[in-house]
Amino acid sequence: MKNTCRSIPVSVKLRIGVDDDEDFGFICEIVRRLHEAGCDKFYVHARKVLLKGLNPAENRIIPPLNYPIVYRLCEEFPQCDFWINGGISGLKAAKAIVYGDDEQEKVHSNDTPVIHSVPCEVCNYPNGSCIAPPTKAKVPTNLRGCMLGRAAMDHPSLFWDCDRYFYGECENPCRTRRDVLNQYIEYLEEVYPRRCCDDVDEITNRIPSPNVVHTKDFCSICSDWRKGRAKKSKKSTHEPNGQLPIANRMLDKMGSDIDGDSEPKNRKKKKKAKITTHVIRRALRPVLGIFNGLSTNKAFRRKCEDLTQDLSIRHCGPAFILVTAMQIVPDGFIDAEFIRTEDIPASNIIEHVSPLECPC
Question: Which InterPro entries does the record associate with it (predicted)?
Fold first, then answer.
């Protein structure tokens, strides 16, 4: 591995066991061999994997978690860096794991230390999992962080407070879902450019996208929004951040030709796809769950998918599709301020991603 990769750093993601091979010596031997081969960064999913009887989804939740074994790996291999993964519900749990949590000392009685093991009666977690974080004095120096995979996909709003709460910044860059989506729209415009006004036949089916030169600044469908962006129109209650005032102005135009030319009534021109649905779905996936837990969640997801399938609007790019889908979300949801992490009731993730229902 060293000779093949040379100066390129190598990392490995692994589990703590396979089927009946789950003792500490087993995982130590794997890490030792990988380290000797040139790997010094390990992302450890703190569950074993059962190759028979469980599918991938079940293997993510049924085998018990064992955080203490990852802490032991950190002590056993001080020359390596470790990240812990598996069952981390949000920022509170992540911070406790990475920075330590002295609250765990409260479970001790009569000055007798409680031993956490699997199955763990102290943690009282499903399937006997042990998710005890280390105390602040015993956090391994080479435990560099943690991974939250499913939480990021299913509840992206969990991470709005990451800069302030987890990394210690003075404030976060966004306070509402509209702030997040508007910044993501700017990113989409740069990375996934529109294809509604170019003469290039090459299809956008992967990233990086083809280099195209637009023959016009906008088409008849996205003209209102792009004119507003170009003029940097003033924000208002009904037209925040230069977005379209109402969805109907856009939706009424979706039946027109991309180039704005009228079609003969007796002949319908077949449009050629320049952006694949795969690219649009990939572009929108990071924010599809931003309204998770709110009553508008399903409608927003459905609107994104409907617009993705609509060839007439798809060429205007994923940024414009997102702008259009946002129009169906009530302002009370999209403009509600997020809840600070420390103000969330214990073990209540839904409150984190779902403010009180708005009266609209």
Answer: Aldolase_TIM, DUS-like_FMN-bd, DusA
